[in-house]
Amino acid sequence: VSLTLLTFLPLIGALLILFVPRGQTPLMRLIALGASLVTAIVGVLAYTAFDGSQAGVQMVESAPWFVLPGGTEVHYRLGLDGLSILMVGLTAVLMPVVILSTWGHVHERVKEFLVWMLVMETGMLGVFLSVDLVLFYVFWEVSLIPLYFLVGIWGGERRLYATVKFFLFTLAGSLVMMIGVIALLGRFGTSDIVELSNRAAGLTASQQLWFFAAFALAFAIKVPLIPFHTWLADAHTEAPTSGSVVLAGVLLKMGTYGLLRFGIAMFPAAAVKASPLFMALGAIGILYGALLAMAQTDLKRLVACSSVSHLGYVVLGMFALTSAGLYGGVLQMVNHGLSTGLLFLLVGMVYERRHTRALDQFGGIATVMPLYAVFLVVTVLSSAGLPGLNGFVGEYLILLGAFEASPFWAVIGVSGVILGAVYLLMATRRVLWGPLTHEANRKLTDINAREVVLMLPMVALVVWIGVAPNAFLHKGEASLDLVLRRVERARTQLAAQATGTPEEVAATDALAGDERFFLDGERSLRDFYYHPSPVADGRFFLGGQRSLRAISYRSSDAVEAGR
Amino acid sequence: MSAPDLARLYDSTALWAISPLLALSLGVLALLLVGVLTHARWARGVVVAATLALAFVLQAGLLADPAGTVLDGTYAADRTSALWGLLFLSGTAVAWLFSLSYYTEDRPYKVEHDAMMLTTPIGMMLMAGAQDLLVFFVGLELLSVPLYALCAFRRNRTRSVESGLKYFLLGAFAAAFFVYGTSLVYTATGTIALERLREVGVSSPLALSGVALIAASVFFKISVFPFHLWVPDVYQGAPTPVTALMATGTKAAAFAFLLNVTFLLPASAAMTIAMIAIVTMALGNLGALVQTDVKRMLAYSGIAHAGTVLLVVAAALAGDPQPHGALDAALFYMAAYVFTAAGAFGLLALLERDGEHFTSLDSLRGLAKDRPYVAAAMTLFMLSLGGIPLTGGFLGKYLVFYTAVRADMIGVAVVGVLLSVVALGYYLRVIVAMYMQPAAEGLLRRGETSPVALVPSTFAAAACAVLVLLLGILPGWFLQQLG
Fold first, then answer.
1. Do A66 and B476 make contact, defined as CB atoms within 8 angstroms?
2. Size of interface A-B (CB pairs under 8 A)
3. Between these two residues, A293 and A528, which has the higher pLDDT value?
């Protein structure tokens, strides 16, 4: 399976659409849907071909791109590993749904809309698949532009304000990251992400912190973490439905994905040091987002605020830096994409029919739109974390992992679960049930076949992940284990530096240069280092012995091994 | 100087070195002669195009086979100056192509216009290759004097005349500064040859004050703080193709010289220069943010870009470990900037109706619907000016900040980078107007010109767009030339 093909198929579709004469809207839609469907198929093929037991980058495609003055060779290099596989799968599967959903609400300048949508898909896939830092950065910034146009042209009343705000907020972060990229490339003379991760682990904690800060700012704005969240509500509210779905479903994940790949995996010592801060930001985000959501009267704004809350979980889990937390965080990225994406789709469907999103304009919809009610209830329950659906698995793992690291923030996070149920169920009640008070609502038609078809695959995934999460967790297992090992080593080093005797420090220093930690996917070593032990709270979800090794990894063994 | 001496001076190497300059000079003369033939107007365009093409080929030949320093060590025809030269010629060619369909009422005087325009690259190339302060001065005047006239070329427009006068008065001051500075340097060190100056060094107070005066004059030409105030008025008033030439050519040539004479500045000036660069970026960007006229906005943006490139000079002074790093970064940045800015100004020229106010933001509204290709190209140029990846502007910005980071000026780099976020604020406004706002009521766009007349400008715009994309997507070739 060619990753280049996967990345650029949507772009080919976009180019094809450009040649379709104006007015041939059905043909354009067909091409767009076709391109995204073929991409989805290639994506699923890549997903199944991916071997989750290998930690290294797989299916690499590489070609020299250009040489920077000073001799740093920049490559066009794509690859898949356990950190990106789920995001690639999510993107590929979500996009046909998004494109199908545009049938309902995009009637003007359809050509440009579809072109931007497909360009955006290429950009997003590129971000997740790049294994070259410069290439990653290029895709990262380029993926800004389509959404800028999508919101700016097809958005709501205050679209210009929202889209410029979105662009400038994200760009500010990106440019600070650019300084980080420059410094990193200048220091190590390579732009290969794997190589950089290996070498950056050898930096001292304080050096790592500087790099970490430069990168994490960009990602924190993108996620967005609490002090930077103001652009999101505006962008979501003003964006057209499909724009919101992509924004919530995939684009925000570029932030959490970046935190994982560059924050934690590349600068583990800095991540250990920054972990309390990010856990706090995540937990506060959960609570704050939930409180904001409770106060909203606009349905779409409510979903947008819930999105802030749910992404708080992802950050809380990842920065707990425990096995369960990390696995949960990665899975929750997918969950959030599915359930929030569905929520935006559902809000969009009712908006297309009623042209309002004000909560008090609804009530009793379930009687006129029974099928809609079914989908909304399933989605809301998934989002609220009902056992048996996907949200529960992610949230449970995250809270479990967070509790290991910091019971206090875990408790805050749990309260977010309760509040989440409150605002989601309250909103559902106000929309679906009660008397049908508004005359306009009587004439509402139930969702049609197209709308059912486009939501079905997502709902199927919601249930599938809820019932059998292991199938998904295993894909990232080896890579996540590697990340955890790096974190553990960093922790050991930091602890030794703080309290240890000179010999211990020397031992961990030796560890810093230990190549074995760099050999991604060296299985025998994993088997050597990881002792299975029954500290197995995550057993139910992680299943199998291999995952347990990750949990029971003991830092003292590493010191031992270093000697 | 006796005849044999002269013959020795102008040996075959020297002639090869200055062959592009000779080609341009002969072209100018030929053009003036052809201009007399009133029944063969088409020949004028042919002469200009042929001259530019010939000069370009010769310059490209020099890039492959550099002649080295010639004419008694006063003019260097090395790879660097050849690259600069190619850039100047491209910039001039673009500006000329845009000028073809621009003028209506002043069309009878187009020969003079073209002759002056063709003179400017001679000046620029002399500036870039100058190894002697006086040679630079000759180049500076060869560039400036035609530009003064070109700015005021639309004699019946107050703004154009005002622009020419302003530029002339301030430019004359700057030239005087330069000459005075040179005389001080000569008094203190006894030489004006860069090679000698490098050996003896400039450390005496007298020489340093001379250097300061020279720097002031060069800063005036590249338009950095505090010598930037003339830019908005002059750029706005001048005919738009001339603005394109000024914004790109003058600036690039002055930078080429500045990078040649960086060694004259004391290393302790690094932080001062960095501060000047930051202040320039801030003033340029903040100034541009409040403009409602795109031409004026681009003028302010040009100031900001000059500030960005100046960072490279500061980095070189602060001790860039990579010997040619600063030069490479500046060259790439200016290359990207020349094509981007020339393209953007050119598109404005294309949209203007006889130079009247069709450059306001409001007049660009809804352009995407009426002229989708113009809007798309303009978007590309705006994104490149803003330094978004896949355009030349991105890699230029990357290299400039790379240089700054290498010289341990990380704080400066971060401030600079954040200022370029401000820049996106106004570049986006152009895109917003074109794509996201409906056309203003009663707006009539230029429609009466025949499509044939627009071929040259369309070609120039397309060439600029392609080059901007090439520099962004496949920069390998160009970077190799630098290395």
1. yes
2. 91
3. A293
**What does the alpha-carbon distance between residue B417 and residue A461 come to, in Å, rounded to a whole number?**
42
Contacts of A512 (CB under 8 A, 6+ apart): A201, A202, A489, A493
Mean pLDDT score of chain B: 88
Token pair recorded at residue A350: 């009712």
Nearest to A156 by CA among A239, A85, A100, A225: A239
Nearest to A328 by CA among A263, A417, A249, A392: A392
**Across residues A222-238, what is the average pLDDT?**
86
Most confident region among A102-106, A497-501, B276-280, B312-316 by mean pLDDT: B276-280
Reported confidence tier of residue A551, pLDDT bands at 50, 70, 90: very low
**Residue A549 pLDDT more than 90?**
no
Backbone φ and ψ of B357, nearest 5°: -70, 75
CA distance B414 to B278: 10
Q: Which residues of B touch A156 (CB under 8 A)?
A: none
Listed range (A64-68, A435-439, B165-169) with the worst mean pLDDT: A435-439
DSSP 3-state assignment of A74?
Answer: strand
**Contact by Cβ (8 Å): A509, A559:** no
Best mutation site among A8, A65, A68 for testing chain B: the one with the most B CBs within 10 Å? A68
* Residue A476 pLDDT: 87
Q: What is the pTM of this model?
A: 0.89
Phi, psi of A59, deg, nearest 5: 55, 40
CA distance A98 to A90: 12
User: Considering only CB atoms, which residues of chain B are within 8 Å of chain A?
Assistant: 322, 324-325, 328-329, 383, 388-390, 394, 398-399, 401-402, 405-406, 410, 413-414, 417-418, 420-421, 424-425, 428, 431-432, 435-437, 474-476, 479-480, 482-483
| Predicted local confidence at residue A504, as pLDDT | 63
What phi, psi does B238 have (nearest 5°)? -65, 155
Which token pair is B186?
């000569």
Is there a contact between B414 and A179 if contact means CB atoms under 8 Å apart? yes
Smallest Cα distance from A299 to chain B, Å: 26
**Separation between Cα atoms, residue A183 and residue A204, nearest integer Å:** 15
Return the SS3 of A80: strand
Count of Cβ atoms closer than 10 Å to residue A560 Cβ: 11
Q: Which residues pair with B130 in a beta bridge?
A: B75
pLDDT higher than threshold 70 for residue A563: no
Closest approach of A22 to chain B, Cα-based (Å): 12
Distance CA B138, CA B134 (A): 6
Q: Do A145 and B383 touch (CB under 8 A)?
A: yes
Residue A517 has pLDDT above 80, yes or no: no
Low-confidence ranges of chain B (pLDDT < 50): none
Query: Considering only CB atoms, which chain B residues are within 8 Å of A149?
Result: 435
What is the pLDDT, as a whole number, of residue B354?
53
Among A67, A141, A183, select the one facing B388 at the smallest CB separation.
Answer: A141
Q: Which two three-digit tokens encode residue B325?
A: 């790093």
> Quick check: B228 and B283 in contact, CB under 8 A?
yes
The structure tokens listed for B343 are 């393209």
DSSP A434-487: S----HHHHTPPPP-HHHHHHHHHHHHHHHHHHH-THHHHGGGHHHHHHHHHHH
Closest CA to B93 of B129, B40, B54, B143: B54
User: Between helices A193-200 and A159-188, what is the axis angle to 10°?
Assistant: 70
Largest CA distance in chain A: 80
The amino acid sitting at B419 is L
Name residue, tokens 């801060």: A277
pLDDT at A522: 37
Among partner residues B410, B424, B476, which is closest to A179 by beta-carbon distance? B410
Minimal C-alpha gap between A166 and chain B (Å): 11
